[in-house]
Design goal:
The complex is a heterodimer of chains A (354) and B (651). By secondary structure, chain A is α/β, with parallel strands linked by helices. Chain A is 27% helix and 18% strand. In chain A, the strands form two sheets. Chain A has an eight-stranded mixed sheet with strand order 2-1-3-4-6-5-11-7, with helices on both faces. In chain A, helix 1 packs across helix 6, helix 2 runs parallel beside helix 11 and helix 3 crosses helix 4. Chain B has 651 residues and is α/β, with parallel strands linked by helices. In chain B, strand 14, helix 15 and strand 15 form a beta-alpha-beta unit. In chain B, helix 5 crosses helix 7. Classes of the chains: A alpha/beta (354), B alpha/beta (651). The interface between A and B is large, with 60 and 70 residues. Strand 2 of chain A pairs parallel with strand 19 of chain B.
């Protein structure tokens, strides 16, 4: 489960200073009162992040959380690191400027389904295609919480909300499919209530060189309570959840009786293992350069019932990060010493007046 | 070929010296050269006009460069369509370049041309209205075909129907002369025809005694990898010069002596280039890496292009996915300790407004460059206007004051950028710099400053806690202000012990924690305003040679040249007028009110419908009168002189 894939790449955190001091979750808590609704899934994610960060051993002052607007975006106030609570949808853009100019920082973006997929959709896809060193945690609760319950771009068709009394009619985004379409180099999904899986996914994201998108299914107990219950309920989850593990056959179900195979038409399908044999199962390869199998995996789940929902790392491939390449160009330009301002502004075409 | 070009430069240089020394005689004895009379002029305005594809901007640019090299003072006005290639031969496709040069200091690209070069009927039709009677008109007759003339509504040929008889028309088959001159080259007809702008440049260079060296050097470098094209362009250029020498159509040659200018090393520079260099210099003077986040937009893109070349100076350029991301990335970089810059034009400012508001709330340094163009909406992308002043002042939600700096000439853009960086870093605030299309693309000679004399703007980040808790331990309060500047500390990520969170939600004074307290919000709004109001800016200087003027002409930004030229004209007529020009629009200079009250009348010419006038009237209850034109072009000196005289006679 907690495999680390060696991609032969510069490690994302290699330039971030480390601390000798042993850290604990408590070190990452602030004195600010956490103001999410009691029972909100955000608490679990916050606790998960705070409990996970110490293992990275990074200097706390070199970690930055940047968020947009929405319930999830209050997150930075509760992290005892550097942080910016910015404006709606723009966190990836702001974080890009920071990450490109500061290789010594571990930069995290906290966003929600409205923030990143509606108002900030453009910034998200461009951050993903550029492969900037950002770790984007997308809290997906499939609803607008802070504005009190309108449907979101991930709400299922037919969602009845304050702004859609007759049911929503627009087709939702699948964030994983969207990220893969933007050719993101790291794409994963996890669940707020599964601490172990959450932390394991965060770990892989943190070390990934480039943009990592982690979709976190998060329960809004006020406006969309139980949205992910089929994936959480002890009676159903094993039959609904497909846990992707790199290098392992894709097999699930309470008795391991179901699995994923390639269908005759090239798509993927869920089958009974007994009918096809274990050897026929698709072996998950997160490092596959071609994203089409990862995309096909992202299409398996039913957007309404959540049947056959994969979680884990869909894609984890090596590609030089944008910021690394920007700095390489700067270094190359400066290798013969700094620029001469006087020579620059004089140019080549001057004349003297005595 | 190289030798031929060098010989040409030497020969033409000799001709110049000869002409300057001996009255009325060319210094060249080569056979076939007609001796021409040389007439001294104190200033000349030339306009090159042709189709977008005719290379008029390049021609004007080269003529400008040799004029600068000769030592004349000069000012230019490129005027081109927004379309890259509008349909050939049509009025919308006309591209023009006007150059004013003189033996004394001048302030504008000039009102009416002394010479119009019209490369086709459309160029003639579009520009003739600006040409005063008696002016020289050089027409490329080859393009005056029935078809081309009917495209622009000429039923009869203006070259033959007598409609041009009040001008000194020089009908010249520029295209066929060029093709003839290039017949020995292995070029197609189309390629040969394309060199006609160089033929025209050669002719004008002869006519006005321009040195040829810089154009020859330019062509050599531009076509270094295409020797055939280089040879053809040089040949066309030389042929144009030789045509001037030999034709009987031009009986005189003109000379404009070099201007007397302050001693120093000069170069020619456009506003966008000066602004780019100013940003590089601001990085050096502040000691901060420059980070530009930008999205291409006319007429600001050249700054992005230019800065992308200067990575050696630690300048990072980021071409963002949109205007919002451009400013967002710049703000993110500023949070990390860089000199964050975003460049755009009016429509881009509209998109960036929310992020600029965030920068106001975060109180981080940020440079926002608005190269204004005609608006609203897409408006006139390639034309100039000053109608973003109120957008810069007020175009954000809530009370979100930001300082505004406006350069007054192309070269001044260099110093304005440094000044904007000073304010941004000292006061930890976004600063708006308002350039415009006229400054951006216009050029003037620039006495290159001594970089060691530039102001020291060294920035020191905060590295220590600034607050003591009751138990004696140290704490960092991100909104504890400097009592003098009201600036908050700039503690960048990576600084141990100063971890803090900031955001767009209202913050408690001092601690920076989220606060919805009514009294705190009122206090913070007033603090942010007081910080901007308290920015130290130099006093306004007034130019009133007689000391007896009763009328003050107040301007801002790119109208400096036309207003100054207008005032000079009025003074030459024996009237008195004072001129003052605002470089700081927010806050205003401390002495502005006193200056305004010294005069019976204040006239404010603006390329908008009265935006500075509104601020002045609202702020000082001064009954200023406006003079407002929004034609996409700078004011003309003569027009302003008339307006100023009217105001003087009315008081």
């Amino acid at each position: 489960m907690s495999e680390t894939v060696d991609l032969g790449m510069p490690e994302a955190l290699s330039q971030v200073p480390r601390t000798e001091v042993k850290q604990s979750a408590k070190d990452f808590k602030t004195d600010q009162e956490v103001r999410w609704c009691p029972g909100c899934g955000d608490y679990a994610i916050l606790a998960g992040v705070q409990s996970f960060l110490p293992e990275l051993g990074l200097a706390r002052e070199n970690i930055v959380f940047i968020s947009g607007i929405g319930c999830s975006s209050r997150f930075p106030y509760y992290m005892n690191t550097y942080g910016v609570h910015s404006i709606h949808g723009r966190a990836p853009a702001i974080a890009t400027g920071l990450a490109v100019s500061r290789p010594d920082l571990s930069v995290w973006v906290i966003t929600g389904d409205g923030d990143s997929l509606s108002i900030g959709g453009n910034h998200l896809i461009h951050a993903l295609r550029r492969n900037v060193n950002l770790k984007i945690l997308l809290f997906n609760n499939r609803i607008y919480g802070l504005t009190k319950g309108q449907y979101s771009p991930t709400s299922e068709v037919g969602k009845i909300t304050k702004s859609t009394p007759l049911g929503s009619i627009d087709n939702p985004f699948n964030p994983i499919s969207l990220a893969l379409g933007a050719e993101a180099t790291f794409v994963a999904r996890t669940i707020d209530s599964d601490r172990k899986h959450l932390v394991d996914t965060l770990r892989q994201a943190a070390h990934h060189e480039g943009t990592a998108l982690v979709e976190i299914y998060q329960n809004c107990n006020i406006f969309n309570d139980g949205a992910f219950d089929p994936l959480k309920d002890a009676n159903t989850r094993d039959d609904e959840l497909i846990r992707l593990v790199h290098g392992e056959p894709i097999r699930f179900g309470s008795d391991g009786g179901r699995g994923v195979v390639r269908a005759a038409d090239g798509t993927l399908e869920v089958v009974d293992v007994a009918a096809v044999g274990a050897d026929a199962l698709l072996v998950h390869d997160a490092t596959a350069e071609d994203p089409s199998v990862a995309f096909a995996l992202s299409r398996l789940s039913d957007p309404v019932t959540l049947d056959d929902t994969p979680i884990g790392v869909f894609r984890n491939v090596a590609r030089p990060s944008y910021d690394q390449q920007v700095r390489a160009q700067l270094d190359t330009a400066a290798k013969d010493g700094p620029g001469d301002l006087a020579a620059l502004i004089a140019g080549s075409d001057t004349w003297q007046v005595a | 070929m190289r030798d031929a070009a060098t010989r040409f430069v030497e020969r033409t240089t000799g001709a110049l010296q000869g002409a300057s020394e001996g009255a009325g005689r060319s210094g060249d004895d080569e056979a076939g050269v007609v001796s021409k009379q040389v007439v001294q002029l104190d200033r000349v305005i030339i306009r090159f006009a042709g189709d977008s594809g005719d290379g008029m901007q390049l021609t004007g640019d080269r003529f400008t460069s040799s004029t600068a090299a000769f030592g004349n003072d000069l000012s230019t006005l490129p005027d081109f369509p927004a379309e890259i290639r509008a349909p050939a031969g049509t009025l919308p496709g006309v591209s023009a370049f006007q150059l004013h040069f003189a033996d004394h200091d001048i302030m504008t690209p000039g009102d009416a041309p002394n010479v119009l070069v019209a490369m086709n009927p459309a160029a003639l039709k579009a520009n003739l209205k600006d040409l005063p009677r008696g002016a020289d008109l050089i027409v490329n007759t080859d393009e005056f075909t029935k078809r081309n003339m009917s495209k622009v509504g000429y039923e009869t040929s203006p070259l033959e129907d007598g409609s041009l008889e009040s001008y000194a028309v020089h009908p010249i088959p520029l295209t066929s002369l060029t093709v003839e001159a290039l017949k020995e080259f292995d070029l197609g007809k189309k390629e040969a025809e394309r060199a006609k702008n160089m033929f025209a440049l050669g002719l004008l260079s002869w006519l006005y005694h321009r040195p040829t060296e810089s154009t020859v050097e330019f062509l050599k470098s531009k076509f270094a990898k295409k020797p055939e094209i280089l040879a053809a362009n040089l040949a066309a250029f030389e042929a144009g010069w030789a045509f001037g020498e030999t034709t009987e159509d031009f009986s005189v040659q003109y000379e404009v002596k070099p201007a007397t200018m302050t001693a120093g090393t000069y170069r020619n520079i456009t506003g966008n280039l000066a602004l780019s260099y100013g940003l590089v210099a601001a990085g050096r003077q502040t000691g901060l890496p420059v980070f530009l986040g930008s999205y291409p937009i006319t007429p600001a893109s050249d700054i992005l292009h230019e800065l992308s070349k200067h990575k050696k100076f630690g300048v990072t350029t980021f071409q963002a996915e949109d205007e919002i991301a451009g400013v967002g990335a710049a703000l993110g970089a500023a949070y990390g300790g860089a000199l964050g810059v975003t460049t755009t034009s009016g429509p881009g400012i509209a998109l960036k407004s929310e992020t600029i508001g965030l920068a106001v709330a975060l109180e981080l340094p940020l440079l926002v460059i608005d190269v204004q163009r005609g608006g609203p909406s897409t408006g006139l992308p390639t034309k100039t206007e000053q109608a973003d002043l109120l957008q810069a002042m007020f175009g954000r939600n809530g009370e979100a004051p930001i300082p505004i700096v406006a350069p007054s000439s192309p070269a001044d853009c260099f110093h304005a950028a440094i000044e904007a960086a000073r304010i941004a870093t000292v006061y930890r605030t976004p600063v708006m710099l308002l350039s415009d299309g006229y400054l951006a693309n216009g050029a003037e000679p620039w006495r290159i400053p001594d970089v060691d004399a530039l102001p020291d703007l060294t920035v020191r980040y905060t590295t220590e806690p600034n607050h003591e808790l009751p138990d004696g331990s140290k704490d960092f309060w991100p909104y504890l202000r400097d009592p003098k500047t009201l600036a908050r500390p700039w503690a960048v990520p990576g600084t141990p012990g100063l971890e803090h969170r900031i955001g767009g939600i209202e913050k408690a004074d001092g601690t920076g924690a989220i606060s919805y307290d009514p009294a705190n919000h009122d206090k913070m709004v007033r603090l942010r305003q007081a910080k901007v109001d308290g920015i130290e800016v130099p006093d306004l200087e007034v130019d009133d040679p007689s000391g007896e003027a009763r009328v003050l002409v107040l301007g801002w930004g790119s109208t400096y040249g036309p207003i100054g030229a207008g005032c000079r004209r009025v003074r030459r007529e024996g009237l008195t007028v004072a001129q003052a020009h605002l470089r700081h629009l927010n806050p205003f200079p401390a002495n502005l009110e006193a200056v305004l009250r010294r005069y019976d009348k204040v006239l404010i010419p603006e390329m908008n419908l009265g935006q500075l006038a509104l601020l002045i009237r609202g702020r000082f209850l001064v009954d200023a009168v406006g003079y407002n034109q929004v034609r996409g072009l700078p004011f003309k000196a003569e027009e302003l002189a008339g307006v100023i005289k009217d105001v003087i006679t009315s008081v």
